[in-house]
Design goal:
This protein is α/β, with parallel strands linked by helices and 413 residues long. The protein is 46% helix and 11% strand. The protein has 2 domains: 189 residues, 3-Layer(aba) Sandwich (Rossmann fold); 118 residues, NAD(P)-binding Rossmann-like Domain (Rossmann fold, 3-Layer(aba) Sandwich), CATH 3.40.50. α8 links the parallel β6 and β7. Bound molecules: nicotinamide-adenine-dinucleotide.
Length: 413
């Protein structure tokens, strides 16, 4: 275990408790002296007992010499700090140094070694920093095994993890790292190297967004005389759309007759109440940015005949109100692009009322752009742009055309 801070020491003590032989290395002599004396180097519930038991059983040892820690090791877990630099960037000095120490130690080793990075590092760090420093060391492979513990509950989080992730480019080292956790109920997710690096940022950002969301909704509720706890606990009882995987797939921008309207009303009311809710206020701006990335990607296709698949704001509806596809089409028309549109649920003669008014107001000649069948669209277009998750049948037809496809809905993957 390279680095015996919060992550390294907890991991070392828990792995020792599950029967592994662990040698921890740290440059900080105080940590080494503590672990050798069977004491946790900092307070973390349950850690002191595990360090004491591991140390007295001889399964947990510690040293200031990286080479000594690696002497008989099968796996090296890097748990050094990756602190923020002044500009917010991730500081990789400790990671570089420990990797250089590993490379130096490996010169006198013959046994294979899996080096797994447990510290939080940005996608690409292993390939750009760790692997080059270890290049030329026979039998050394690299994996990523991010840590998800919460300080204050770190030992419990290790024993009952919510998530275990192992990333890599080769199956054997990944299996080797995954096997460290074979005694736990949770099965490791085996993913690509960069996914394992990214997932930690995704999780932490998600947690921060959840806290910000709960606090902003709570603040608004309070000002409006509503009990925040009741609102959020009721929200959490919906495990289908709220506390679930729903809406957590990357895809196209949102639209429709509800989300934009209700977010605007919420922003307006908060401003009237002198309540600054920057996170909720940024959601529509974030959605617009996402839409503009898609518009740019379509414009980057050049002056070709573009067949757009999907016009409504999502699949399985003919509702065109505030459909982001309408904005996309307006931009393409404005830039002189030649386009046609197909939507399995939209025929001009069948839509009416506010829906019809909305589209005719935005694109008066929409009737001329709509094609009645996918075959007709595919026969005319040079490229397809898919803006909704297609049905399995339509997805098959899209693939069968052999046309280049820009899948802004990410529904074909
Ligand atoms: N603390 C958390 O709750 C937590 C949770 C998940 C992930 N992480 C991530 O895990 C990593 C470690 O976090 P931490 O809180 O344990 O950091 P920490 O600062 O508590 O521990 C890092 C340890 O590494 C040691 N070290 C530095 N360079 C070394 C070297 N060359 N050889 C040996 N030891 C060396 C330091 O002396 C220190 O004891 C960070 O990337 C962090 O972002 C932290």
């Amino acid at each position: 275990m390279l680095g015996l801070g919060y992550v390294g020491c907890v991991t070392a003590a828990c792995l020792a408790a599950s029967g592994h032989h662990v040698c921890g290395a740290d440059r900080d002599e105080h940590k080494i002296t503590s672990v050798r004396a069977g004491q946790a180097p900092f307070y973390e519930p349950g850690l002191e007992e595990l360090v004491r038991e591991g140390s007295s059983a001889g399964r947990l040892t510690a040293t200031t010499a990286t080479a000594q820690a690696l002497e008989n090791a099968d796996v090296a877990l890097i748990c050094v700090g990756t602190p923020s630099e002044r500009n917010g960037n991730l500081g990789l000095d400790q990671l570089r140094r420990v990797t250089e120490d590993i490379a130096a130690a490996c010169r006198s080793r013959t046994k294979p070694l899996v080096v797994a990075v447990r510290s939080t590092v940005f996608p690409g760090t292993c390939e750009q920093v760790v692997m080059p420093l270890l290049a030329g060391q026979n039998g050394v492979s690299v994996a990523v095994n991010p840590e998800f513990l919460r300080e204050g509950a770190a030992v419990k989080d290790f024993i009952e993890p919510a998530l275990i992730v192992v990333g890599g480019n080769q199956p054997e080292p990944m299996q080797r790292v995954a096997a460290l956790y074979s005694g736990l109920k949770q099965k490791p997710c085996l993913v690509a190297l960069r996914t394992a690096e990214m997932i930690k940022y995704a999780c932490n950002a998600f947690h921060a967004v959840k806290i910000g969301f709960a606090n902003e909704i709570g603040a608004l509720a309070e000002v409006m005389g509503v009990v925040p706890e009741e609102v959020l606990s009721t929200l959490c009882t919906d495990e289908r759309l709220n506390i679930s995987a729903a809406y957590l797939k990357p895809g196209f921008a949102f639209g429709g007759s509800c989300l934009p309207k209700d977010l605007r009303a919420l922003q307006y009311r908060a401003a009237r109440l002198d309540l600054n809710l920057p996170m909720l206020q940024s959601v529509l701006a974030s959605n617009d940015e996402h839409l503009h990335r898609a518009i740019q990607a379509v414009l980057d296709q050049g002056m070709v005949r573009i067949g757009v698949v999907g016009l409504a704001f999502k699949e399985n509806t003919d509702d065109l109100r505030e459909s982001p596809v309408v904005t996309l089409l307006e931009h393409l028309i404005g830039k002189g692009r030649d386009l046609r549109v197909y939507d399995p649920h939209i025929q001009m003669e069948k839509i009416y009322g506010s829906n019809r008014n909305y589209i005719l107001n935005a694109i008066p000649h929409i009737g001329r752009l709509l094609t009645p069948s996918f075959e007709e669209l595919a026969g005319w277009a040079e490229r397809l742009v898919v803006t909704q998750r297609p049905s399995a049948d339509l997805a098959r037809q899209i693939r069968a055309t052999g046309l280049p496809v820009l899948d802004v809905a990410r529904g074909l993957r």
